[in-house]
């Protein structure tokens, strides 16, 4: 009887040990499981793209089995070049660039599959403090705008015209300065007004280099300002990857929507090591309050139409491209259902 008990006990110990080893091996396999690499090229580094940095810092991409690397390629032309040449798998850039590529007769068009921001992200900064700002004050002044053909510049002109200002007749419009050097040009004394992204606009305000007087995002309405896009061939070959990517983006968008400006600023601070935490909080709150961060990745047809209207008004729409030609909402709709 005692031998039987001992044998049963020994067998139990062996079973427990084998189960433990199997569990350890399973955990090791999970830890060592190779993540799929995805390369993003972003058009600029801005708190405007906070949900993207949240997806990275909170591990939402890794949860989906993706190892995402991020590279900043200043300017839409450089970002699109990186994507088309194979230097990046996914681009975060304005949707207007996909229209430009398509209009040039691309055999492998660039498809918008997940929207990140839904308003313009720039602000009008005046060199001098203005207590009672009105858009008429720009008449006769020098306005340092964004690169010609880019979404910021087109929205800038759209808003000026909305307020009865002809950007090519009523003021001196400068738009031949490289995207990365616009802020420096203004700081060096060029122009009385400038169109800037955050956090640069708020930093300038803190340092006394300028004063934020208006938001182009509030003035222009909803538009697919920045979207994640990839070549059609890449999407066809990597459907599962695009779905995982979009799901991570959606998780981040929902997280941003449900958390405070302070929490969001804290989550993305590693991407802005030289920016004052208080400025970051202010900037996030500013973008949240005007609805700049899209709460889901769907680029709808109304936004696409608004984009084309803005491009057409600026004289930059090369051809009328149908919504379904360059927009794929399949992945966004799928991850939202789940």
Automatic annotation (TrEMBL):
> According to its UniProt record, which protein family does this protein belong to?
Belongs to the bacterial solute-binding protein SsuA/TauA family.
Q: Where found, per UniProt?
A: Periplasm
Signal peptide range: 1-22
Please report the organism this UniProt entry assigns to the protein: Neobacillus vireti LMG 21834
A Pfam family of this chain:
NMT1
Its keywords, alphabetically, are:
Signal
One cellular component (GO) term of this entry: periplasmic space
Q: Any coiled-coil ranges, and where?
A: none
Question: What is the protein name for this chain?
Answer: ABC transporter substrate-binding protein
